[in-house]
Amino acid sequence: MAEAACKGQTEHFFAPHGEQAEARELREAIARSMCVTCPVLLACREYARRHREQGYWGAENDDQRLEARRRPARHRRASDPAIAAQG
Ligand code: SF4
Predict the structure, then answer these.
(1) Distance of CA 69 to CAs 15, 38, 43, 51, 64, Å?
(2) Residue-range definition of the domain harbouring residue 20
(3) What ligand 1 atom has the least distance to the C-alpha of 4?
């Protein structure tokens, strides 16, 4: 938590009630811009997947997290540009 790039800015990571699709896209783009520079991205993502969290965690929204949980593990890293960008 101490190393999280989103520290103090969690309003970008959780949808307000009644959020429309366009607002969601903008909010998640802001969240993603923080996640891809975050030193704890992978740990955050795995935690959210494991605990079935809601919201934007580790550069994934709810739909992406659900889809990732359904994919075999060997396909997850290779197809993820956020992980590739971190090297
Ligand atoms: S990966 Fe994203 S959601 Fe997770 S701690 Fe970092 S900035 Fe926050």
Answers:
(1) 21, 22, 15, 11, 9
(2) 10-86
(3) 5
Ligand 1 proximity of 48 Cβ (cutoff 6 Å): no
How many distinct structural domains can be found in the chain?
Answer: 1
Which residue has 């975050």 as its token pair? 38
Residue 82 domain-assigned (yes or no): yes
pTM above 0.90, yes or no: no
15 within a domain of the structure (yes/no): yes
- What's the 22 CA to ligand 1 centre distance in angstroms? 22
Q: How far is the CA of 58 from the centre of ligand 1 (A)?
A: 5
Give per-residue pLDDT as tens, 16-29.
Answer: 999 999 999 999 99
Q: Would residue 3 count as lying in a domain?
A: no
At 71 the pLDDT is 82
